[in-house]
Amino acid sequence: MVTHWPNTPPPLTDAEISCCFERPVGQPRLRDLCKGSSRPLVLVDDLNRPTPAARILPFLLSEFEAAGIPFSNVTILIARGSHGEPHPQSLRLKVGPQVASTCRVLLHDPYRNTRKIGKTSFGTPVHVNKEVSDADFVMGIGGIYPNNTAGFGGGAKLALGVLDIRVISQLHRKHNGAGWGRSGLASNFRKDLDEIARIIGLQSLVTAHVNADRELIRVRSGDFRQYYEEEVEFARQAFRTPKPNGADVVISNAFPNDLSLTFVHMKGINPLRHAPPGASRIVLGACSEGEGFHGVYPIVRMPLFHEQRDRFRRISLMTPSEILQKMAEKFKRKLHPEVSSYRDGQSVSLERSPLPQLPPKKPIWLYHTGNSSQALPPEVRSMKIRYNWNEILDIVRREQDGRENLSVVVYPCAPLQIIE
Question: What is the 3-state secondary structure (H, E, C) of 60-109?
Answer without folding.
Answer: HHHHHHHCCCCHHHCEEEEECCCECCCCHHHHHHHHCHHHHHHCEEEECC
